[in-house]
Amino acid sequence: MDPNDTDQRRTVSYDFLARYFNKPSAKGYFRENVRWIAAAAVREKFREEAKKGEMPQVVTIARSASDGGIAIRPGREYLEHPGFPLAVIVGKPSAGGGPAHFFDDKDSFEKTGLIEPTQDMWLPQIVFRLYSQTPSVVMGMPKQGKDGDMAVECRSLAFGQDAKLFERAAAD
For 23-56, how does the pLDDT look when each residue is reduced to its tens digit (9 = 90+)? Predict the structure, then answer.
């Protein structure tokens, strides 16, 4: 590979990230490596914008529906704070987060919030019951509660933008 060839660098970055999205079993794809791979892909994607000082504040990386590869784009919608979470993430930031659930609109978030929690999806229901309005990203960090019960501490990410977090009234 020629390190001075922008197209080659971008292809290699995207290739590594696409391999991770396809659930590799190789030991080289553990969480810490994936962070570096994602960062490299984003740097390559927005290299010209970064040179102009126009690097997106938030980006999304998703599996591309058309060709099975990946798509990297600015995540402007996460800065707009529609009043409900677009993403709910389980885990501690220091541990890399955990399962994430994404919502395209308020109806899909509310529909999920009203169903019974399961072992695989419980944080969206907790966030729905606790808050009537949130920033676009809410994280839930499990912690030990009183009497040894499991509890969760919620934190919202506002990405430096104004965003409101309102607790739901008991009658809601």
Answer: 555 555 555 666 777 888 888 889 899 899 999 9
Average pLDDT over all residues of the chain: 81
CA separation, residue 141 to residues 99, 145, 148 (Å): 11, 12, 16
**Whether residue 99 sits in one domain with residue 58:** no
In the chain, the largest separation of any two C-alpha atoms, in whole Å, equals 63
Mean pLDDT value across residues 86-115? 85
Is residue 172 in some structural domain?
no
Considering the domain architecture, whether residues 12 and 83 belong to the same structural domain is answered as: no
How far is the C-alpha of 84 from the C-alpha of 81, rounded, in Å?
A: 7
Indicate whether 83 and 124 sit together in one domain.
yes
- 50 neighbors 42 (Cβ within 8 angstroms): no
> pTM for the full model?
0.71
Same domain, 53 and 65: yes
